[in-house]
Design brief:
CATH topology of the largest domain: FAD/NAD(P)-binding domain
Shape: elongated
CATH class of the largest domain: Alpha Beta
Bound molecules: flavin-adenine dinucleotide
Distance between the termini: 21 Å
CATH superfamily of the largest domain: FAD/NAD(P)-binding domain
Helix content: 40-55%
Strand order of the largest sheet: 1-2-9
Number of helices: 11
Length: 257
């Protein structure tokens, strides 16, 4: 979440702000900050600054809040631009989420995500045996060999590409992860941090998946293949509408460009 600009100079130096005549609120000696964009990054930044006592004004050009994570009204339905599942290991981010979205405003859903590849649906997170079966004998053999190679000779660089290649084999990485991720993040996977993958992708144990295909464990459901998630009941944008409301209650200004 990086394309929002704050007036960093004014944060770091009150003197500069005083010299340039920034519009501090009467009770605050802290400088005023302009936040460009009311997407998740801009709103989180604005709320944090307000909590620290800064005067904050947000400038947004789209006419709505939430950026790519906003919800739109279409034909009387609330529609999200994409399925914005919340997942983080960061306590600070969890607190931010919980502070702006009451648990009564959320629903708990089972995840059903699929990738359409060469006319076939593949479960996402990938199910090892299903993926190999659908890819066909030749491609599956290539994937298994590639996975074996990655297991024997794991890559060391801290990149998204290396992490996913190690976890799934380079061939499966190229088929299912490379283009999608590069489109989504707008950056090459070889330049993207492995932290993106660590937080977002469940690993797959191909050998275990193949064994389970022949000897099903009926008593247990494979934990790595099940995923439930919490979602705002009125769409991802609800989180950001709530955040905006809190910002305004705290005295933050919003300017629609
Ligand atoms: C289909 C899809 C699914 C996704 N799923 C997930 C998910 O499950 N989990 C997850 O964590 N992330 C997900 N993401 C990524 C997530 O949406 C982004 O990481 C997040 O929205 C980035 O927030 P941001 O504030 O940096 O940028 P944006 O969301 O792009 O917000 C930027 C805001 O700034 C405004 N703006 C830009 N330039 C200016 C300007 N010059 N003046 C005024 N305003 C300006 C824009 O109008 C916009 O409102 C998904 C994205 C997509 C597209």
């Amino acid at each position: 979440m990086s394309n929002n600009c704050t007036n960093n100079d004014s944060i770091s130096s009150q003197d500069t702000c005083k010299e340039n005549g920034c519009s501090n609120s009467p009770e605050s000696t802290k400088p005023a900050v302009a936040v460009i964009g009311a997407g998740p990054a801009g709103l989180a930044c604005a709320q944090t600054l307000l909590d620290l006592g800064y005067k904050v004004d947000i400038y947004e050009m789209s006419g709505s809040v939430g950026g790519m994570a906003r919800s739109c009204e279409i034909l009387g339905q609330t529609v999200d631009l994409g399925p914005h599942r919340f997942h983080t290991d960061e306590p600070l981010v969890k607190d931010f989420w919980a502070g702006n979205l009451d648990s009564s405003e959320t629903v708990h859903k089972e995840r059903l995500s699929r990738i359409l590849y060469k006319g076939k649906f593949f479960s996402y997170p990938l199910r090892g045996f299903e993926a190999l079966f659908q890819l066909g004998l030749l491609e599956s053999a290539r994937c298994v060999l590639s996975y074996a190679k990655s297991t024997l000779f794991p890559r060391k660089e801290p990149t998204f590409e290396a992490w996913v290649s190690n976890a799934f084999g380079h061939r499966l990485y190229e088929i299912f992860f490379k283009t999608y991720s590069e489109k989504l993040w707008g950056i090459k996977c070889s330049e993207l941090s492995d932290q993106f993958a660590r937080e977002r992708i469940r690993t797959l144990n191909l050998s275990k998946a193949v064994i389970r295909a022949f000897i099903p464990d009926r008593g247990k459901k494979e934990r790595t293949l099940v995923s439930t998630f919490i979602y705002p009941a009125k769409g991802a944008g609800q989180m950001w509408n709530n955040t905006l409301a809190r910002i305004m209650r705290s005295g933050g200004g919003v300017h629609w460009l």
